[in-house]
Amino acid sequence: MNPFAPRTYGSLERVTDRVYIFRNIVNSAVIMGDDAIAVVDTQVNEALAKRLIQAIASLPDHCHKPIRYAINTHYHWDHTGGNYVFKRIGAEIISSAQTKAFIEERTPRQKAFLLSRGFELGRDPYQADRTLAEPGDLDLGNQRLHLQQLGSAETDDALTIHVPQEGCVMAGDTVMTGSFPIFGQPVMNEGLMGTSVWLETLARVEALEPDHILPGHGPVAYEAELDLLKRLQRYFLDEVTARVERGLSLPALLDDLEAQLPDWITSIPVTWGTPRYAILRVYRGLMEDEELGWQHVKPSAIPAADAAAAEAACAPLTAWSEFRAVASELEEGGDLGTAIAVARRATEVLASEPATWVWLADLLMRGSRQVTSVLEKGDFFVEAQQALHYALTLAPEDVNAHAALGQFMIMRAYRNGDDPAEGMAHLQRAVDAITTPAWGPQRATLAQAHFYIGMGHRTNGDESLAHACFEAALATLPGFAPALLAQQA
Length: 489
Description:
The protein is α/β, with parallel strands linked by helices. It has helices at residues 46-57, 77-80, 83-88, 97-116, 197-207, 223-245, 250-258, 263-266, 275-286, 307-314, 320-332, 336-349, 354-367, 374-394, 399-416, 421-433, 441-459, 463-476, 481-488; strands at residues 11-16, 19-23, 28-32, 37-40, 67-71, 92-96, 130-132, 136-139, 144-148, 160-163, 168-176, 212-217.
């Protein structure tokens, strides 16, 4: 798979004659009536909401019908980020009363957590124009939607949309398929909190006898997908509870249970949730703790250093070149934890030198590739971002800091369909500061900056400008592998 290929950021798939699923980082559902259209969940951000609207407009059965309703299944950012866009085209935003309250109460904590994972959420979601405290119906013209809260699931405000004429249920994150589920936001007390409440909610969803269940994430769910979700929940409820009752500490519990996870669990792909997160979620639900969620008890994904080895490695070092050489050797030898410890020590000894902070950030970014969960990568991302921002406080025009920060922002935008403008601005500052023709390390930095500006244009869908930047990267550094890959796509 080419890591720099153009991305579509979602595609509409037909589920029934009048229901579609928009598959992306998060799913949206599109329901057609004779008179109007409803959308369930408005995407992660405004850029992706616009892409969803464009996709709807391309449908042959769209027939210029208005999007009358945009419904939020729950308060989470990835399901409400496009509310403003749908409001601007005249849709009525609808949620449960509980969702509206949660957006008001929980958004600051949610945003702070996601910022720590490397996600910039932008402005708070547009709040619902109409809220439902009781089950209610919406009419699209010969197409009835029944909205009701069937019980707590990933969140306590979970809303289900039943479209009986189509045999469809839009379940939001009550149902997740295709990768390991995330059983509740890490900084909230919600989800699989050591009880069977979510399983009971799933039973109520099944009681509607739908032919198709459209999940919040992943492919359309049928019996096999529901059975796997329920089996996962029962497994972690039983196994974590048993170890808590035996009095195991959290580190001992993690070591014991993770060593015994069966293949049917470890073979599930990981994107957001992980088996460790499931353990922490259930554990946190069984324990008294004033702090919300389980993020504060989660072991860092950054490998621990051998303290004695790190101290011995750092003791004789005084110059930046010495620290870098030792850290590089440790990284190449597979000891990432000690390499990071040496790089951190360099920022203590040589705190006023921007290069030490940029090197630490680069090392952390490379280290993040060792983990698959987007949220686990955040342990690396947050420290790397802090290091780069600090480098820029020391030297606001530092070329390498602008280039590294811009690269990070561009690839985040490319993965998520975000606006790449801020990252492109950092990269352009790096380009403008490098005297051409560039030589030595600056030549590679200039090639990288041109390339990642091109990836910003690719994220925006402008392939002509993207390829011009890839050519500029190759003119600067012939054979630059990322640019060659990007051109092949």
